Amino acid sequence: MSTSRFDALLAPRSVVVAVADETSAALGRGMVANLRASQFRGTISMVGGIVGDAQSVASFAELEPPDLVLIAAPPTAVPRLVAEAGACGARVAVVLTADRDDVLCRDVWAAAKPYGLRIVGPGSIGLSSPAACLDASLFSRAPSAGDLALISQSGTVAAGIVAWAAKRAVGFSAAITLGQACDIDVADCLDYFAGDIHTRAILLSIDVVRDAGKFMSAARAAARAKPVVVLRTGRHPAAITAAASLTHTGALARPDAVYEAAFRRAGLLSVGNLDAMFSAVETLGRQRPFPGRRLAILANGYGIGALAADQLADGGGTLAPLEANPVDLGIGANAPHYETALSPLLADPAVDAILAIHVPTARSDSAAVAEAIAATVTTARSREGRRKPVFAVSLGEDEAALAAFAKAGIPRFSTDSDAVQGFLHLVRYREAQDDLMRTPDSLPRDFLPDRARARTLVEAALTEGCTWLDPVSVAGLLAAYGIPSLPVTLAPDAEAAAAAGWAIIAAGGTVALKLVSPDIVHKSDVGGVRLDLTSEADIREAAAAIVAGVRRSRPDARITGFAVQPMVRAGKQRELIAGLAEDPVFGPVVVFGRGGTAVEVIDDRALGLPPLDLRLAQDLIDRTRVARRLAAYRDVPAVDRHALALVLVKLAQLAADLPEVRELDINPLLSDADGVVALDGRVMIAPQVVRAGERPRGAHHPRFAIRPYPVEWERSIALKGRAIRVRPVRPEDEALFHDFFAQVSAEDLRLRFFAPVRDFNHAFLARLTQLDYARAIAFVAQEAQTGTMLGAVRLHADANHVAGEYAILVRSDTKGLGLGHALMRMMIDWARTEGLERIEGSVLRENRPMLAVCRRLGFTTKADPDDAGVMKVELVLKAFVNKSAVSDPRP
User: Fold this and answer.
1) Who has the most CB within 10 Å: 484, 532, 718, 799?
2) How far are the Cα atoms of 233, 479, 508, 569 from residue 566, in angstroms, in the given order?
């Protein structure tokens, strides 16, 4: 990730417009006109054209190094202009030239790379930064100043949002169109605006994600800091590609569904169209997220209020518990009626938010009603100091009414549907934030997968050139991860199948006989399954029928034998599906839903990006319709939800450990009150291939979009005879940290946090334990025997992945063991492995033991110029490298 040179992009001191012919010169002159109209305070120059009194030169060599270059030229001339801009010392270039293939993108990157020149585009329509009086865009009008940041791959979508916002006095901290994004991309912008104090919320319009790991890391960080609303364009054409998958899970994991799962996992608020985006803009532009979800509806007519209540119910919202809700003021209600009714609702603790609807009539004035609502809300806020959310619907386009609502900061909508949607946007955002901060349950201590056995099975199949694991290997793979399945015997022919089936029949059971063929995945499609066989003769006859049917429908298919299993009837068990699919962008995806042969038709499924914990697995289950059937009903007991969630967690771990597993189907997965059992499974494998530009991600799957728990960093060490376990921190360690802080002295806490700390609440502890391993690490040290926490060290990398800031705390009674030194060494090793170039920290001058450890480890120390009581420490790991100039092109 890199936010390098964003200062030159959004607050440049000098701008150059570069053109190459008369056609592009006309566009360039338009850009200069927009720059002047926005009252840009820096210098404006033009290369290759003449515009009024703007400085115009023949080449970049005649100019002082500019901050920002805008390039409008034919595709053949763009790389030359980029190279000339880089050679003269320009810092950022925006390429307005559009080109549908990736050739121009690669040529532009190659031209910029030697100079470290940052690039926006090609295919951008520019950017606006109102606070810097910069309109370097092709928008129809410059955005007004505000606190929303707009990031868009599509120029037309961005232009539409800006034009809509202009009519409603909604402003922006910045608006950037990225085009093909050969360098500066969505993730870079998310990182920048997440830390921008002038940005309160981020609007994101994207078509594709090229680097899923980078995007997810930036999106998760941004969503924890402020609301991020995302609209994805071009969702459905791409969905066709998943239909060709050979497994049920692969067919269910359509690209549009995977994107939605990724957005959900990152904590983004996803909307489906521009209307919903506009609703989010109106809401976020005037209203901050709030606790609660109980809405009071106030309207001058029962019918319009009831429509709003229906919209709320359809969207999963909650009406506030009032004697009458909606509150019907009657068709003749005017300004005093609204004021009288609104005041008690603003004061009522049972109401979390209010929707005030006014339909213009001959007996009421829209402007007067709007002014009454605005005045009542403003008075209540000043008196109570609390901004209870109020949403307004004013049918019609009365300018005075719109102005009154805008002045009071009240989101105003033209329909009840849009208003309810705006309300639900904020409710869902706040609930998503709560979900991000929830502490997951701890995994069972006995969940220790047999990775070696699993890897042996997969590698043996790959050595034999197999694409699919045979049924015995599938059962062995599931057993290695503690997923219960039916016993299976692989029989090469009908006689062997009959012999294997006799043991089941003799025990009082019946037999299921299934075709085994590396060329046929869905056995039922070719009559390759026979059930309820009660004799050896039945088994021989069934085997012959299966072979005959396959020879007729698939004469080319290889038949390697039969799988023999005991019959299990579903009875009161629920038939589910669980498994793994491979997405070309986001990598492995966990799939869960209703099982059976018609899973694609039913299409009741939810997707989740691994890794998963038990909380995320439970959420995955809850997002399906079949989740309602998992509860008890009539004489059917509820299923063991914990066992079911644990299967999903185990599948996610299997994906992390075995990149060669490309798709995995468990269908059906039977679930009841006693647990789960896999009735049938198929696993597709392929050799692991690391694509060009992929970063190694520890010992885990190189295509994971979210870095999994780094198990390879677990250590056992001995310090002065004490056995200590050191491992990376997990989200479920919150209680461990809470107990640890209770045993640390107040003085040591002050030295760590630079102030007395007494309140170790959930939000505080969640920030310490819920890590993005792509940009942060924390190691916890525990007594090997008891698990008692002794200390922890933390390192968080910056957005550019160049420097990391560390912090450390060890328990007071462990000093003298050398634990602090050992933890620091592990943290430094991690930083080197991740390619960080330096480690930084702040240490109180009086904390001499910590300063001594730093000096022994090679840190340099110097006084903090802003605080005489603090020392700055730094460890240089290697020479600085400008990563924006050396990383690979992304298209």
Assistant:
1) 799
2) 49, 17, 10, 10
pLDDT at 384: 67
Half-sphere exposure in the Cβ direction for 304 (13 Å, CA) = 22
SS3 494: helix
Q: State the pLDDT at residue 884.
A: 36
DSSP E strand boundaries for 331-421 = 353-358, 390-394, 412-413
At 254-311, the pLDDT tens digits run 888 999 999 999 989 898 888 888 888 778 777 788 888 899 999 999 999 999 999 9
Provide the 8-state DSSP code for 652. Answer: H
- Tokens 């092709």 sit on residue: 138
Residues in the chain: 891
pLDDT score, position 634? 83
**Which 3-state string (H, E, C) describes 768-835?**
HHCCCCCCEEEEEEEECCCCCEEEEEEEEECCCCCEEEEEEEECHHHCCCCHHHHHHHHHHHHHHHCC
The tens digit of pLDDT for each residue in 125-146 reads 999 999 999 999 999 989 999 9
Residues 808, 824: Cα–Cα separation, whole Å: 8
576: its two tokens: 């589910």
pLDDT value, residue 147: 92
Distance CA 791, CA 741 (A): 10
Would you state the structure tokens that stand for residue 396, as one six-digit string?
Answer: 């019609």
Nearest to 225 by CA among 259, 196, 262: 196
Q: What residues contact 498, with CB distance under 8 A and at least 6 apart?
A: 536, 537, 539, 540, 543
d(CA 94, CA 68): 8
Dihedrals φ, ψ of 349, to 5°?
-70, -15
The answer to whether 101 and 75 have CB atoms below 8 angstroms apart is no
Please say whether the beta carbons of 575 and 542 come within 8 A: no
Q: Please say whether the beta carbons of 861 and 851 come within 8 A.
A: yes
CATH architecture of 285-437: 3-Layer(aba) Sandwich (3.40)
Quick one: pLDDT at residue 386?
Answer: 66
Domain ranges for the chain: 6-206, 285-437, 451-566, 711-883
Characterize 436-466 residue by residue with b for buried, 16 or more Cβ atoms within 10 angstroms of its Cβ, and e for exposed: ebebbeebeeeeebebeebeebbeebbeeeb
Can 6-206 and 711-883 be said to share one CATH topology?
no
Task: Provide the Cα torsion 688, 694, 696, 700; round to 10°.
Answer: -50
The fold of 711-883 is Aminopeptidase (3.40.630)
What does CATH list as the number for 451-566? 3.30.1490.20
- DSSP β-bridge partners for residue 119: 93
CA 845/CA 864 separation, integer angstroms: 10
Determine which helix (DSSP H) or strand (DSSP E) holds 343, and give its type and residue range: helix 335-347
Short-list 840, 878, 876, CA closest to 858: 876
Extract the residue ranges of the chain whose pLDDT is less than 50.
1, 238-244, 693, 695-699, 879-891
What 8-state DSSP symbol labels residue 134? Answer: E
Closest CA to 742 of 762, 725, 723, 757: 757
**How distant, in Å, are the alpha carbons of 184, 673, 888 from that of 636?**
56, 9, 57
CATH architecture of 6-206: 3-Layer(aba) Sandwich (3.40)
Q: Is 622 helix (H, G, I), strand (E, B) or coil?
A: helix
State both tokens at 751: 């030295």
3 state DSSP class of 463: helix
pTM for this model (two decimals): 0.89
